[in-house]
Each structure stands twice: as C-alpha cells, then as structure tokens.
Amino acid sequence: MTQENVYRRFSVKWKWALGTTIGVFVVFLVFSLLMFRAFTQNALDSQHQEIDNALNAVSQRFTSVNTRNLTLDMIEPSLQPGNDHVHTILNDELIANVASKNLTLTIFDRQGVQLFTSHTNLVAMEHKSRFVGQRLVNVNGQQLLVGRVPVYAKNSNRIVGYVQIVDSLEQYHHMYIKLVKILVVLMLLGLMAIALWGYLLADWLLRPVEHIAKTIAEVEHDPKTTERVPDLLRNDELSDLGVILNEMVDRMQRYIDQQSRFVEDVSHELRTPVAIVKGHMDLLNRWGKDDPQILNDSIKASLDEMKRMETLVQEMLDLTRADQVEINFRHEATDVQDVVYQVYNNFSLIHPDFKFSLEDDIHKSTIISMYRNHLEQVLIILSDNAFKYSQERKEIHFAMSRTSREVQIAVQDFGEGISQEDANHVFDRFYRVDKARSREKGGNGLGLSIAQKLIEGYGGSISLESSLGHGSIFRITLPITNTDK
C-alpha cells in the first residue's frame, strides 16, 4: 500500500475528531494544571501561615528576657509541665500543635547553639544560613519548610536568641500525591470523554458531507441517476450546499437530456430530406443526368431540401440555446416598446398587403430583464406564424399593456384558427397542425417551441387562445425590471 493511500484512508472525520480532541484536551489540561497549582499553593500558604502563627506565639513567651544571650535555664520554666501558677509553652494549644510529629520546635541562643528541640532537629543554625523568615530547604533529599524569628531582649532590643520551627510537609506531600492521582484519573476520563465527544461531533457535522460525496460519486457513475442529496434539515451552509448541488445536478441532467433529444430529433427530422436528396442523386446517377428536365428538377428539389435542412438545424440550435438563457443572458435589459414597435414596423414594410395595427397602453418606457434579440425573435416567430395562417383576412393586431409587476404583449390574427386538441400541443417540438400545409409554408414545428423556451427562460409565460375559423391570440407575460429608463 502506497503512502498516498494511507493518507487517503485517514478521513476528514478522524482528522476533525483528533484535532478537536487534542484542542479541547489541551485546554482542559491547562485548566486542570492551573487548578492543581492553585490548590497546592493554597495548601503551602496554609503551612506558611501555621508556622508564622506558631513562631509568633513562641517568641512572645520570651519577651520578658533581659539578658545578652538566651540560656537553657531561662527557657526551662516555659518548657516544664504546667501547674496552676505557671503558663508553659507546651500547655499552649497552639504550641501543642507545634510539638506534633510533623513540626519540630527548636530554640537557639545568639550564637546558634541549640538549647531545645521538640524532635530531632534536621536544620542546624549554621552561621551562613542564619536567615530570618521562612524558606524551603532540602535536607538529605527531603524538602522541609523552615521558619525562624529572633528573640529580642526586653530593654536593649538586642537579639538574644532564635526560635525555629521546621515543618516536614508530610501532610502537604500526602495531599500533593493524592491530588496528582486524582488529576491523572481525571485526565484519562476527560481524554476518553473528549475523544468520544469529538468523534460524535465530527460525525454529526460531516454527515451532510458524506451525503454530498455519495451523491457526487453516484452522479459520476451514472449522470442520469435520480440520486440526490436528502433534505438535511440543518439550516446551515452545508444544507445550502446540498440544495445547490441538487440544483446543479438537475440542470446538468436537463442539458444531457437536451443534448440527447437534439441528437434524436436531428436524426429523425433529417431522415426525410436526406432520403429525398439521396433519391434524386440516385436518379441522376442512373439515367436522369442525360435528361435536362429531370436534372433541373432534381437539383431544384435537392437544393430546397438542403435549405430546409439548414433552417431545421439552425432552429434546433436556437431551441437548445433557449434552454440556457438564464446562464448566458441573466444581466440583459430591454425596452419592450422599442422592440414591439420595431417588429411592427418591419412587418408592415415587408407585407404591405396586410393590415397591421398596434394598441399601446403602456405609454412609457418599460424595462424587462431579457436579451433584446430574443424578444425580437419571439415576436418574429409569432408574427410570421400569424402571417402564414391569415391568407383570407389579411389583418394582424399587436397590443401592449402592463401592471405594476408585469408587461403583456399580444399578437392576434384573424385566420384559420386552431382546434382545442391542436392548441394543447402547438408548443411541442416538431408539432404541426397540418403537416402537409406546414411543409409547404416552410414550417418545421420548432418556432413556437423556441418562443416558449425563450419566454420561460426569462421567468415569463406564453399562452394561446384560438377558435377555428376566427383566428388566434398569442399572449406573452414578462416580469418588469424597472419602469424608468
């Protein structure tokens, strides 16, 4: 197994869980160590305070001494068992605590000679270490807390001796070890809890990513699959990503379907003109080329079919592009009146035998979000359709109106009309009401499909009202972008 594959197997979920576990555990560890430090320091401060109180209590017993140096005879009365008249040091409750096994009381004279000790004294009064106050010392690998205060003569305020208390810190060390054990147990339990929480959190957060990855893999395997990202019900960025992916896959499949239909339609619709051209070519190849009349007829028929094929291919390309207007022309803007008046004037010019009329109820510039050429193309398709089927009553009527949000355009003819059954299919691809007459008039059955795709691509709608023998009305509705230019 290559190193790359090993890295691939370490999924994002595990990376996330590991990173979360390490991060939270470090914070928990730092907090626990700070708390541990605070507890131990507080315990040590209590030991300092206890020694300080004991030192003050003992030193006050010698405030009546008025000599140059302490001697054993001077301190013995305070060290003997008490009676009703003498208050001894050892009878004092505070000093009795000093005489416990964890504390050692020692009294020195001015030169540092030991006069008394309650236990074996481990800290001698050396000249170099004749400090006053409290400090931690290390004796034979054992850490001790030593407190020392001087004893002053009553009148001269001269140092006559020292009182020293040594704390073995047994209780402190016992508590310290106990806290360490508790801390280790808490660290292990905390690590397991944090790791479990990190994994569950990563699994919950990345579950949408797994759905998305599964959908992408399925689409890659089968572009026509109906597999989609389920509704994640999360209301967050990953849910938005799932919705966007579904929309993208739907759009991609529409393009695939359009491409497939385009190929199928091309192969189907071109079969007839290709067969006609091939038939004429075969005829000329066999014997018709020697007959000028047959030669001319075959060439003319072939050219007509090739022209129809050219028109058909162009219309099919237009139909395919019409499905993509929301991507390629989403920022276009067009003045409706300009385009309608242009088409109206153009058809009035090229068909002088027709009567054209225009009813404008807008009376001001109205902007829609649509590519100008596309609106013109739709109006030309509808106008050309009206022209082809209005050979008896040659009259075409244009109308424009608007509401606060929409603009309506209508193209009306007074020709043959369409039955209700045919009206339900006029926007279908390659649908012809009268196939023979449509072919004679140059129709391929794609114009209205193109018009519908273009209008719907810009958020509008197109509808048909028709009556046999009375004509048809095509109505277009498009949303208004801005009412002022």
Automatic annotation (TrEMBL):
Domain Histidine kinase: 265-482
Top-level taxon of origin: Bacteria
PROSITE patterns referenced in this protein's UniProt entry, alphabetically: HAMP, HIS_KIN
A Gene Ontology cellular-component term: membrane
Subcellular location: Membrane
Catalytic function, reaction form: ATP + protein L-histidine = ADP + protein N-phospho-L-histidine
Keywords: Kinase, Membrane, Phosphoprotein, Transferase, Transmembrane, Transmembrane helix, Two-component regulatory system
One Pfam family, short name: ArlS_N
Its EC number(s): 2.7.13.3
Residue intervals of the HAMP domain: 203-257
Protein name in UniProt: Signal transduction histidine-protein kinase ArlS
